[in-house]
Structure formats: structure tokens, C-alpha cells
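so the lab meeting is tmrw and i was supposed to have these ready like two days ago... anyway. pasting both below. for each one the top line is the aa sequence and the line under it is the C-alpha cells. i havent really looked at them closely yet so no promises
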Amino acid sequence: MGTLRVHFTADDLARTTVAATVDPMWEILLSRFRLNDLDKAPAYQPWMRRLRSDPVQRANMRTGARLLTTLAPMGPYFPDFLTPAAARNGLEAGLEAIRSTPRHQLRSELQRLAQHVSLPGWVRSLADGEVAALTQLTDALRAYHQAAIAAHDDLIQPAVNVDRAKHVTRFLDIGVEGLLTSMCSTMRWRPPVLEVDYDIDQELHLGGQGLLLVPSFFCRRVPISLADPLLPPVLVYPINPSWEIYATEKSSRRPLETLIGSTRAAVLRAVGTGLTTTQLSRRLKISPASASRHAAVLREAGLITTVRYGAAVVHSRTALGTSLHEGCSSSDRPPAHQE
């Protein structure tokens, strides 16, 4: 086991952020690793059971899984072009970035991969940047994502919501350095360096760019970063994918929606301990004006509070809002042993 050492300046600390949701390309890659896990962690069992019970989903993800087994094997290295920064803007943006990867990057990264594993002949067409090969890859990744990730958003997103709310609270309470200290048991903040348990020894100097911390449902045990230090700095970290969180979120919907309406119930669930109006509108796929109106109604009812931070306003649940949310959750929650 090695150590990733991330070197911060004061500017880097000021520019460090936590992504609002998972990155689709990282989730594709890391979920493929979870399919290979021998110990089958309990937290992933609901997801695994869904896949096993749906032959159509398994068939749709088969080609993508096969390609990923070759291009991103378990080990110390996989190509960075599979997880482009553009994917922060959504799956299609990420797939387009893969199709547009410069030939020199494809060739360099696949040659590096070949130093670790034996590659089949078809990889040469990717290394040459052939349009047909890149299109075949992105089509397979899209189908894999739909079957293995998007179809299970109701399982993944609640866990991400809880994780982000927790970190927003920590950031407001103890600042970014405190957040780095408490984010993950395999991360240690030794100012001005963040040490991360890693497969290899690696140094990452942020140089004033800041660090984007990306939550991942499928990242397990230790965070992961890009291999090329010249790419935009990112650290993907594991959240706690809890089946209990999923069960609570699912069971809380009917009574809460019946009481205050579906959109306002969604707003109350989503804000947790902190979301801006923009984040809320993106999360719920509603307009910022609509998000602001629903937040105002909940605020007038004493269910959320709104605080301005610079140019943004952050909405969070009040004690009353939390009590209502948790009360509706517990009233319809199945026994702990049920799945």
C-alpha cells in the first residue's frame, strides 16, 4: 500500500469543493470493479440482487463490462481518458469527451496500460483513434450506465444526498481543513498536505487549481484520483452506501407527499443540511424560480431555513423540518431485517 500526497496552497484550500453528485464515468468504472469483488460487501447486495434478477439489464451491460475488463483492469493503473472532466456535465458530455480524446493521449495511455497487462489486438484501433472503435466503446458504456447505474438512481442518490449533507455541515462548522480531516478514514490532513492511502506512491501538487472532491457510491475503502498530474485535480472518495438509507428514503415518500405535496416533499428531503437554490433545482430537475418558490413556502412554514453566503443562499432543514421528515420516514419504514 502506498500514499497519495496532495499538496495544497492557501489558494487551493479556498478553491476546494465537493461535487453535488456522482460522476457518471467514474461510477461506470468503479461499479465494474464491484462486480469483481470476491467478498461482496453487504452494502452493495441490494444493487447486486437487482442485477441478478433482471436478465435484460445483464444483457445490456455485458458488452460494456467486457470492454471495461480489458481497458480498466483491477490494478495500479487505468487510462484517464475513460474518466474525462467533462462528465461533470452529465453522461453524454463525458461520452463525447471520450470520442474526442486526442490520438496522442489515447496512444500514450494505452501504451502505459500495456506495461501492466496484456492487451488484445482490437485495442490498437482505439489507440489509433478510429471513429468506429471509439463509437463502439461509448455506445457500450452508455448501455452499461443505463443498466447498472441510471436504473438504480433511487438506490444511489439518497446515499449521496446524506453524504453531501454531512459534509456541508462539517464545512460550515469546521471549515475546509476540518472537512479534509474528517471526510474519510483513509485520508489524513497534515498541513499543507493531504495524505491518502493508495495503491502506489504518488505526489499531486495542486498549484492553485484547488481540488474537486467527488462522492462515489461504488468507490470502496480508499479514494482514487487521476494518474496524470497535469489533468484537472480530482479525488473520488467512497460514501457509505447504506441499504437502510435507501429503505428510509423509499418509505418516506408517500406520507410526506400526501401531507405537503410531491415537489415540496422532494425539496424537504433534498435540502438535508444544506443546498443552494441552484443545486436544489439541478437535483430535482426544476427551474431555479420554482425551487425558490417552494423553498419560500417551506421556510414560511418553519420547515427550512435560508442563509446567504456571498452570492448564494443555502437552504437547510430546521429541527421542525427534520422531525417531520424523520417522522414520516419512521411511520412507514419496514422492519430492519426486511429488504
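ok protien two:
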Amino acid sequence: MIDLFRYTFMRYALIGAILSGLSGAILSNFIVLKKMEFIGDGAAHVAFGAIAVALFFGLNMNLISILVAIIFAVAIHFLGKRDNVQESSAIGMLLSLSMAVGIILLSFKEGYVPEIDSFLFGDILMITREDLILLTILNVFIVFFIIFFNKELKYYTYNQKLSKIFGIPVDVINLIFLIMTSVAIVISVKIIGIILITALLITPGVIAKLFAKSINQMLVISIIIGIFSAVSGIIFSYYLNIPSGPAIVLVLFLIFLISYIIKNAMRRLAT
């Protein structure tokens, strides 16, 4: 186990897993409670388009991905406010557009593009110091946002109409939340992969909801689960020589399965 820390790429991978697990777990609670699971798939597929643009033009991948993620979040926010366009429909359209652009651009590149497989399924060898800095900044922002807007987020999560009556800036909170989620996804795809990133943004919140009695309890439980599963997945991927994304998802699903069985057993004992 100690030999893991001898390699720089493994230290980066473990730190990245902790940071991705933290941000994903925190956001998963609000995604689950507000039934916004589709946002994860949307932002992940938008990340594919952004990566394709960066690879095709030889641009900084993180910069392009973050810019595209912000544009995606802003577009979802404003399109979702239209009476004739639902948020899920807007996500679906932008998801398809991004995938189409990505596939077209990659078709112009000659030969096999190995980076794509790594982004699709996660690759711990791709994590850089720049990624860790960006993840750290993102996590600091998310934590401060949750702390300072804790009460507003509770109203926003459970009753958006009531929030407006109490003067809570629902539109601003929604926009910031969409941006945070989209940016968290595009930065974390190197660890868990585009195809599987949604699991990190849903499963911790689903598991926490089984046992928690409040949002704050959900946050604590989901953070523990998110970090544990991400780190465990990285360790398994190293020793078993498998992609990090599937390893993390398997750990998450096993935790969910065990939690679900325990919760049902507790209900039966209570009755």
C-alpha cells in the first residue's frame, strides 16, 4: 500500500480522487433531491465536444472544457426559463449538438486518437498538477457556497416557488449551481470518464438519502461515501490494471447495494 505514494502519478490520482469525490458528493445531494440527474449526462457529453475541440485545434484542454461547461450551464439556465422549452429538453439538445461537433472534429484527425479512450473511461495517468489546482479551487468555491447559502439552498431544493416568496434569488442560485456542476464534471472526467461520471454525481446522494433525516446529514454521509469510493476505485484500478472510472462505479454500486439491503432490514425490524 505504501508503494502507491512512491509514484507521482499515483499521488496525483489519489488527491484528484479525494477532490472529485468531495465535489461530486456535495453536488449529488441537490441533484438527487431536485431530480436533476439528466444534468450529469448532459455536461459529460458536452465535455466530449469540448475535448474534441481542444484536441483538434491543439488548445489547452482544461481551459476549453471549463469555458464550454460555463456556456452550457448558462444556456440550460436561460432556455429552461422559457415556458415552451423544458430544462431536460434543452439539455438533450445541447448534449446531442456537442456530441455531433465532437465526432465531426475527431473524424478529421488522421489515425487513432488514444486520448479519447482515456477520457471516456478515466485514466489516472492523465491527471496533472493543473487538474489538482483547478479541483482545489472548485472545491473551495463549492464548500463556501454551501456554507454561506445553506438556508437559501434548502428553500431552493425543496420549494422553489416558496423561495421566491421569501425573496431568495432562486435564478442566481440555480445558475451558480448549474455552473458548479458542469465545471466539476468536465474537470473530473480524467478520473472517472465521460461515460461514467454521472454515477459520482448521483449515487452518493441516493445512498445518503436512505439514512439521512436532513440535508446536512446527507452532505456528511455522501462526502464520506464519495471520497471513499473514489479513492478505493483508484487503488483497485492500480492493482488490477483496469480503468479508474469503472472501478469507482463498481465500488459505488456495491456500497449502494449493501446500504439498500441494510435499510430494508432496518425497516422490517422496525415493524
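from a quick look at the 2nd one: Residues 2-270 form a domain with the ABC transporter involved in vitamin B12 uptake, BtuC fold (CATH 1.10.3470.10). The two ends are 44 Å apart (CA to CA). will dig more after coffe
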